[in-house]
Amino acid sequence: MKKRISIITVNYNGLKDTCALIDSIPFNEQMEVIVVDNASKKDEGAVVKERYPHVKVIQSTENLGFAGGNNLGIKASSGDYLFFINNDTVLHPEDWNLQALINRLDSSEQIGVVCPKIRFAWDNHPIQFAGYTPLSSITLRNHSIGFGEEDYGQHDTPHPTPYAHGAAMMVKRSVIEKVGMMPECFFLYYEELDWSMMISRAGYEIWYEPACTIYHKESQTTGQNSPLRTYYITRNRLLFVKRNYQGINKYLSYIYLIGIVATRDIIKYLFQGRFDLIKAVCRGLKTFISQLSTE
Question: Which of 111, 119, 156, 171 sees the fewest Cβ atoms within 10 Å?
Answer without folding.
Answer: 156
